[in-house]
Structure formats: C-alpha cells, structure tokens
C-alpha cells in the first residue's frame, strides 16, 4: 500500500502542521487552545480544508455532547447530591477503610460514564475531603484510586470521556475517504464499550485493593483531619489564632498600605481591616492605614504581640469588631486546586488582584510538596497548584463557580438547591433512557436533559454558561479539522502504508494493535488525549485497511488508549489531584505505571474478544 502512494504537497503541509502542533504542545510556550486556533487558521489559509467546512467542528456532535455533559454535571452539583453521597458512604462503610475506599470509587464510577472526567473529579474532591476529615484516612490514599476509577469508568459509555465522544465524528469523516469497495464504518452506540469498561473497572478496584493501596500507605500522603486550624498549622505553618490590632497615633504604620505593613519583618497575616466604620475581609494591598483603624491579624500569639509592640498597636484577642466576619459559619480557610483550564495559570496574585477583585486572601501555595509562603503575591500560578485561601464562604462559592479553581475543602455553599434533587435525578434518568433507546442521537438526548434542568430551575442559564469549559470546547473544535485533513489529504494513508512496509511479514495483528495502543499513550502524554485521538484515529483506520485488520477495532483501541495516562499532569484528572494528594512524580509512576500496562492489555484483549461476536 505504501509503495503506491507519493507524498504530495498537501500531505507534506498536513504532516508539517501535525509536527508543529506536537512541538508547541510539548514545550507549552503557547496555551494549547491558542495553538488549536492557530492550527485552524492555517488549515483555512492553506486551503487544506474548504472554507465552508473549516468551522464544522464547532457544530459537531462531539462538541455538543461535551457541552451537554458539563451542564448536566453542574445541575447535579447544584442539588447537593454529593453531600448526601458522602454521608451515605460513611454509614455503609461500617468503619472499614478498604470498604469505604471501594464504595467511594464505585460511586465515582456511577457518575463518570455520564459526565466529563475533570467535572467528576471536581465534584469528588470535596467528597473525599469530608470523608478524610471524618475518618482520618490520608487523602493520598483516596484521590489516586478515585481518579483512576473515573478514567476507567469513562469507557462504560460513548460520552464518558473526550476521546470516545470524538470517535464517532472521526469515523464518519473516515467513511468519506474510504477506498472504493471498502465497507463503511458504522458509528458506535451509546453503551457499545460497556463490556470493556466493566472489565477495566473491576481491574482498577482489585488493583488498589490488593496492590495500589499498600503502596500508597508507604508514601507520606496528606492527611486532612477536618480542615481544622491544627491541620493548616501543621501543613502550612498557618496558625489560626486571630487578634484585633488597633492603630494608635504613634504607630509608624499610619499612612502606609496593607501591603507595606505585611512586608515588614515578623508581620502576621493581615486578613481584615476596619476603617471609617467599614469592616472587610481580604483588604486590598493598597488600602491605607489610619489612626483608629483596626487590623485583623492571624499568627502565633507571641509573634503577633511582638509585632503589635514594635508598631505601637493595641492588641486584643477578643474580637469586638471582627467577631461576625471571622465566624466559622461565615468565613474561614480553604484549599483549592488550579485546574489545567484555569485563567489564573501564569498569573500572580498581584496580577489577579485577589483581594480587591475577589475578596480573597492567598495565604500559601503548595506546589510539588513545597509550601510557598514568602512573597506569595508575586508567584506565578501553575496547573495543579494547591492554594490556601481565607475568605467569606459566599465569596468563595461565587469565585469557584467561574471554574478557575476547584475548592477541595468542604465548606457551606451558597445557592444550593437540595429541594430540586429528585427532579434532577429524574431528568438525568430519563436522559439516559432516551440515549439508551438508540432512536435519538446521543447529542440530542443529552441536550434534552439540559433543557429539562433549565426549565425546572435545577440550574439557571447563566450557571449553565459558567459550567462550560470553553478552553476544552475550542481545543476540540479547532483540532477536529486537523483530523479531517489527515484523512482527506491522504497523509494518514501515506503514514499507514509506509508503516506497513516496515512491519515484518507475518506479524500478528495483536502485536500491531498493542504497538498502536502504546503509541497512542505516548502521544497522549505529549499532546493530550484529545490531540492524540484526532491525529491517530485516521492513521489507525488506514493501518487496519493496510494490514487486513478491522478499522472499527483499531479506532476504538486508539480512543480508549488515549485516556491511559495515570502518570503525568497532562491528564486533566491527574493534574487536579497532585496538590490535594501531595503526590510526587515518583508516586504517580510507581503506582500509575503498572496500572497503565494493565489498562492497555485489557483494551486490546477486550476489543478483540468483542470483535469475535460481531
């Protein structure tokens, strides 16, 4: 097959774009969604994709399905379903750690096939926090098993993760470029991969019960006993003792700003400021301090009193001015992790103006087991950073709704609608039944559920807009045409043909499929699971045609293997747990590496097993 194909100029341009995309994704100098937009523009300017088809990715079934699952997940979250789940898990575990971990993983597995994996992980972070708080189980023992289960259970349906959502659209594109005489590829139905998902789910539960959990116990994972003051003191050196410091006429702080007062040697955390009769938490760093003002300071008692003496402040441990502001039911300290799609990445607290714009004080950053407290306002944020925040709970809920960080701490949330719980669950069940019937396309079934939740008030329209990760949408919609170009230009067929020419005669198809699965995993580590799927599905289809394999099976192996990343932060789910679980790269490779090998073996074996019954 390879000898009959000549590398044309269109093929060369497509392969050049693929290479450029991989390099830009690898070095991360430019945001992935910006890279995707640039690729889309180049596809249009070079004429590799017709102008009328160039933006077809935005209206594709894959993008609509992703948007729908994000909104449905947000609707369930608004009803407080997971708060109920945490209590139920604790009651059912009967005090057994292993039983509790298994039940928690199974609960995550029940949600994962119907929602985007990062959304499920975001929902289960506070659940694991509450369970850890009540039982003393280290979060490191909980989060990696939950994350792995979410990834595995995503294979139960065609909407459980982005690669599977993309697969049908890519197969339809491949149909348009099939050689004459070749059979058309039929799209997968909603629950087509369920047998594979069940085997993978069983494997991950057994893995962590008999091997992974023992390895996690050996690590010094983070324990979160209630997110109490003692926890923050031991983990971050943040003492929860609060004082009111009244500014006298003799104080050298008069006329200075809050930021300048905090930068003085031995200064405590200044979390509140009362001036001209107005009190506020997280005062902006440029707020001026005047005679008669009161500062809310937190730190070790001796240090705060020493600072007060040096600066001629009158210290009091009785909270007369800030008693209401520091009420634990209204405000407190929380932890939040920065997800991969956050707008905060690369920016400092000073850039974001946390205090002025959001009313939040950033106390510390936990990054790769290193706690950063010095000059924290000038530290650029990274994906996976754990932020330690102090603020009013209502403000935290409002900012968290923007999805720029995921709150790990279980805290009193505003705008919950527990009275809509039964309605939301009913709509969700009906949505799945419609999708299961196969009479209605999956995107329409999912959008029906979205409409139901909006009409019944489970979620409001503005909340639905906020629930959508537009970075994910643009990344997918802009890269989909690159997959089309791989097919239509013949680049995928050229790669497949030349690959076949180098495969020894008589090589079993099983070995070729294993090599394809491993290659997909390596691509996903570099260019994300979405990029790997879009680039490799066209190649897999053509490789199957060239070797006498089944194109559907080869494409499914790619889509499933693209999510097989339990070892690095390039998997959005894994990046969200590194900070809360206090994992090191060594931890992830030691525990995630063997699990990835099991995953690949199951995928190839089960795809071939199911092919025998078609």
Description:
By secondary structure, the chain is an alpha+beta fold. The protein is built from 25 helices and 10 strands. The chain has helices at 9-27, 32-45, 51-54, 61-78, 81-93, 97-111, 117-135, 139-153, 162-175, 194-218, 229-236, 258-262, 301-310, 349-352, 354-358, 393-400, 421-437, 442-455, 461-467, 470-488, 491-501, 509-547, 551-561, 572-581, 585-611, and strands at 242-247, 269-275, 278-281, 294-298, 313-316, 331-337, 360-367, 370-372, 386-392, 406-407. The strands form 2 sheets. It has a 5-stranded antiparallel β-sheet. Strands 8-7-9-6-10 form a 5-stranded antiparallel β-sheet. Strand 7 (360-367) and strand 8 (370-372) form a beta hairpin. Helix 1 (9-27) packs antiparallel against helix 2, helix 7 packs antiparallel against helix 8 and helix 17 (421-437) packs antiparallel against helix 18 (442-455). The protein is elongated.
Topology readout:
Blueprint: H1 9-27, H2 32-45, H3 51-54, H4 61-78, H5 81-93, H6 97-111, H7 117-135, H8 139-153, H9 162-175, H10 194-218, H11 229-236, E1 242-247, H12 258-262, E2 269-275, E3 278-281, E4 294-298, H13 301-310, E5 313-316, E6 331-337, H14 349-352, H15 354-358, E7 360-367, E8 370-372, E9 386-392, H16 393-400, E10 406-407, H17 421-437, H18 442-455, H19 461-467, H20 470-488, H21 491-501, H22 509-547, H23 551-561, H24 572-581, H25 585-611
């Amino acid at each position: 097959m390879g000898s009959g194909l000549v590398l044309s100029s269109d093929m060369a341009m497509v392969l050049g774009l693929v290479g450029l995309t991989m390099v830009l994704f690898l070095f991360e100098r430019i945001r992935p969604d910006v890279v995707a937009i640039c690729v889309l523009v180049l596809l249009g300017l070079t004429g590799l994709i017709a102008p009328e088809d160039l933006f077809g990715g935005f209206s594709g079934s894959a993008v609509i399905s992703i948007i729908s699952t994000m909104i449905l997940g947000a609707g369930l979250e608004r009803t407080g379903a997971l708060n109920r789940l945490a209590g139920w898990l604790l009651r059912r575990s009967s005090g057994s750690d292993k039983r509790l971990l298994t039940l928690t993983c199974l609960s995550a597995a029940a949600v994962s096939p119907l929602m985007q994996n990062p959304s499920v992980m975001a929902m289960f972070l506070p659940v694991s926090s509450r369970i850890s708080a009540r039982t003393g189980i280290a979060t490191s023992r909980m989060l990696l098993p939950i994350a792995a289960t979410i990834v595995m259970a995503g294979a139960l349906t065609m909407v459980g993760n982005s690669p599977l959502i993309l697969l049908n659209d890519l197969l339809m594109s491949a149909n348009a470029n099939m050689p004459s005489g070749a059979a058309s590829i039929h799209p997968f139905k909603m629950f087509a991969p369920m047998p594979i998902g069940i085997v993978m789910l069983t494997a991950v539960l057994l893995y962590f019960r008999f091997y992974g959990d023992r390895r996690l116990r050996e690590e010094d994972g983070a324990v979160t006993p209630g997110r109490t003051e003692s926890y923050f003191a031991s983990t971050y050196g943040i003492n929860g003792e609060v004082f009111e410091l009244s500014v006298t006429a003799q104080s050298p702080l008069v006329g200075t700003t809050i930021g300048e007062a905090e930068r003085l040697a031995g200064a405590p955390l200044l979390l509140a400021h009362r001036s001209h009769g107005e009190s506020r938490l997280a005062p902006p760093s440029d707020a001026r301090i005047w005679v008669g003002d009161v500062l809310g300071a937190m730190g070790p008692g001796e240090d705060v009193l020493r600072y007060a003496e040096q600066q001629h402040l009158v210290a009091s441990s009785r909270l007369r001015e800030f008693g209401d502001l520091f009420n634990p039911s209204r405000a407190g300290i929380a932890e939040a992790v920065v997800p991969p799609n956050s707008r905060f990445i690369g920016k400092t607290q000073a850039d974001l103006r946390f205090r002025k714009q959001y009313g939040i004080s950033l106390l510390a950053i936990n990054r790769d087991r290193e706690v950063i407290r010095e000059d924290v306002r000038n530290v650029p944020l990274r994906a996976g950073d754990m932020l330690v925040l102090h603020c009013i709970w209502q403000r935290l809920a409002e900012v968290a709704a923007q999805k720029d960080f995921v709150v790990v701490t279980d805290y009193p949330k505003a705008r919950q609608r527990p009275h809509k719980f039964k309605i939301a669950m009913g709509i969700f069940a009906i949505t799945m039944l419609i999708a299961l019937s196969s009479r209605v396309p999956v995107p329409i079934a999912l959008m029906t559920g979205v409409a139901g939740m909006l009409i019944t008030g489970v979620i409001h329209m503005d909340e639905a807009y906020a629930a959508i990760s537009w970075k994910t949408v643009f990344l997918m919609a802009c890269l989909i045409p690159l997959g089309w170009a791989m097919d239509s230009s013949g680049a995928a067929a050229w790669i497949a043909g030349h690959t076949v020419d180098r495969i020894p005669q008589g090589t079993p198809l099983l070995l070729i499929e294993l090599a394809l699965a491993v290659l997909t995993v390596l691509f996903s580590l570099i260019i994300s699971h979405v990029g790997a799927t879009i680039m490799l599905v066209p190649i897999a289809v053509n490789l199957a045609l060239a070797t006498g394999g089944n194109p559907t099976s080869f494409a499914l192996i790619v889509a499933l293997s693209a999510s097989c990343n339990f070892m690095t932060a390039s998997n959005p789910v894994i990046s969200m747990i590194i900070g809360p679980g206090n994992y090191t790269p060594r931890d992830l490779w030691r525990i995630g590496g063997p699990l990835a090998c099991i995953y690949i073996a199951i995928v190839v074996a089960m795809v071939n097993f199911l092919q025998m019954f078609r």
